[in-house]
């Protein structure tokens, strides 16, 4: 009669020993041999007439090993299903010696497995989390910038004779030279485009009034401010922090002058930007844009608050893990085995992920959070609508339902939609428990805080 015994071998780490006597596996071994002899195709014998002894001689050894391992696995999982220990992943087989398996001398066998147990823990109190909802105030300047961007995007490119304003787009041939403009033999030569306002104020003055074919000699670090300098150094093939390259002189030969004529703010233009809205005036346009920017920053603020709450729960919920077991599991559990160094490097992120899984599963279960079929369908519908954006879908949208039916049959699609929705519900619930302080910040300040972890 097969038995499974359990012994503790470390923190949250137990060993399971499966003991088999020959009565546990011999009947199925004999049965398998008979099945083989009925179906085997062996030259010189009619199908189904192959003697069992011959099958045993040819295939017996591997069938014997297979039947023992199958019996072990069956006993192990019967025990796990009955006892239901809270474990991580699958049991890890210990170094089991398979050499002693001799079909001519069946005996008792022992197989060892290791399991890692999930820790008991107390959840951090969300109501005590010191978190802040950082709110961005949408200013008129932000709306102005967005309108200007749209006017340029929708504008027409013209080619004026001379350079006359900072918005001119210049195609320039950069040729390495000395400070007197003499070309350096074998130096860098490359064409690039530049908006005049990217140059320093002093350099811009040198270009005003110039035509195609004219040349201006500049020293790179005097022509560009630091943030733009790094970008141009890289474009010219240097390292962005190369101090010597920054001091080099270049002849800037004007190949082409362009200027985008901004689109006029007309009703036709409003219709292009917002096909589905009835926008007649600039005031209405500003309101629509302001609302869009506000929605964007509200979502960013929530992301950042959720990030704080995630870290609070991870940092303040104390948990112990069967580290050695998990490292072995991480090392051997994937498609290809990892090195000890790779495991050490990955482990902190991996254990945080495990911690978050335990915390989120517990919160979802305890608070009865769930996602129904109707919600999944509604979410998929929104995704389809978002995908088609502002395109008109016509009057007959019945195809959407059959498209959703197909999506609902795709396990991956359903799983990713479910995760998205349940995570959203979970964070809504967590936010409801927290009492964030509110603070007004600029868009740049909020951007600097963003570093997503989930």
Helix content: 40-55%
Shape: elongated
User: How much beta, percentage-wise?
Assistant: 15-25%
Count of DSSP H/I helices: 15
How many strand segments? 11
Whole-number total of structural domains: 3
Q: What is the N-to-C order of secondary-structure elements (H for helix, E for strand)?
A: EEHHEEEHEEEHEHHHEHHHHHHHEH
How would you portray this structure in words?
This protein is an alpha+beta fold and 454 residues long. It has 3 domains: 3-116, 2-Layer Sandwich (Alpha-Beta Plaits), CATH 3.30.70.1050; 156-261, Chitinase A, domain 3; 281-449, Trigger factor, domain 2, CATH 1.10.3120. Helix content is 50%, strand content 16%. It has helices at 22-39, 52-83, 140-153, 201-207, 220-223, 226-235, 243-246, 267-273, 282-316, 323-332, 340-366, 373-388, 398-409, 411-433, 443-449; strands at residues 3-10, 13-20, 92-93, 109-116, 132-136, 156-158, 169-177, 189-195, 215-219, 249-261, 437-441. The strands form 3 sheets. Strands 6, 7, 8, 9 and 10 form a 5-stranded antiparallel β-sheet that branches. A 4-stranded antiparallel β-sheet has the order 1-2-4-3. A hairpin with a 2-residue loop joins strand 1 and strand 2. Helix 12 crosses helix 13 (398-409). The model has no long low-confidence stretch (mean pLDDT 91).
Features:
454 residues; Alpha-Beta Plaits; Chitinase A, domain 3; 3 domains; 4-stranded antiparallel beta sheet
Could you give a short description of this structure?
The chain has 454 residues and is α+β, with helices and mostly antiparallel strands.
């Amino acid at each position: 009669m097969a038995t499974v015994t359990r012994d503790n071998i470390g923190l949250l780490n137990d060993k399971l020993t499966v003991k088999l006597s020959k009565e546990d596996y011999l009947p199925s071994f004999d049965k398998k041999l008979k099945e083989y002899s009925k179906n085997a195709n062996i030259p010189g014998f009619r199908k189904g007439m192959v003697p069992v002894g011959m099958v045993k001689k040819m295939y017996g050894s591997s069938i014997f090993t297979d039947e023992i391992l199958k019996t072990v696995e069956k006993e192990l999982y019967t025990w796990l299903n009955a006892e239901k220990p809270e474990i991580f992943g699958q049991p890890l087989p210990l170094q089991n010696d398979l050499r002693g398996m001799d079909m001519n001398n069946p005996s008792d066998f022992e197989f060892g497995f290791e399991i890692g147990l999930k820790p008991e823990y107390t959840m951090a109190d969300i109501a005590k989390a010191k978190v802040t909802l950082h709110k961005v105030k949408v200013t008129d300047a932000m709306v102005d910038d967005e309108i200007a961007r749209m006017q340029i995007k929708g504008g027409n490119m013209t080619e004026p004779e001379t350079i006359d304003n900072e918005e001119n787009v210049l195609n320039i041939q950069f040729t390495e030279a000395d400070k007197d403009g003499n070309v350096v033999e074998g130096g860098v030569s490359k064409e690039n485009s530049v908006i005049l306002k990217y140059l320093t104020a002093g350099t811009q003055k040198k270009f005003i009034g110039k035509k195609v074919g004219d040349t201006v000699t500049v020293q790179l670090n005097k022509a560009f401010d630091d943030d733009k300098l790094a970008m141009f150094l890289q474009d010219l093939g240097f390292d962005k922090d190369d101090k010597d390259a920054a001091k080099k002189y270049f002849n800037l030969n004007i190949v082409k002058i362009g200027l985008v004529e901004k689109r006029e703010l007309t009703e036709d233009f409003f219709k292009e930007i917002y096909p589905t809205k009835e926008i007649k005036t600039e005031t209405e346009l500003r309101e629509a844009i302001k609302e869009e920017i506000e929605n964007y920053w509200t979502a960013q603020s929530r992301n950042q608050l959720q990030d704080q709450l995630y870290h609070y729960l991870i940092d303040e919920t104390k948990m112990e893990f069967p580290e050695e077991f998990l490292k072995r599991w991480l090392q051997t559990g994937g498609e290809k085995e990892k090195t000890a160094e790779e495991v050490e490097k990955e482990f902190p992120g991996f254990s945080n992920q495990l911690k978050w899984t335990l915390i989120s599963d517990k919160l979802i279960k305890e608070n009865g959070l769930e996602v129904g079929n109707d919600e999944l369908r509604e979410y998929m519908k929104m995704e389809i609508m978002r995908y088609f954006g502002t395109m008109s879908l016509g009057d007959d949208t019945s195809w959407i339902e059959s498209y959703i039916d197909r999506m609902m049959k795709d396990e991956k699609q359903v799983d990713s939609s479910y995760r998205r929705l349940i995570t959203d519900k979970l964070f809504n619930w967590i936010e409801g428990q927290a009492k964030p302080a509110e603070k007004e910040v600029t868009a740049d300040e909020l951007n600097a805080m963003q570093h997503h972890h989930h």
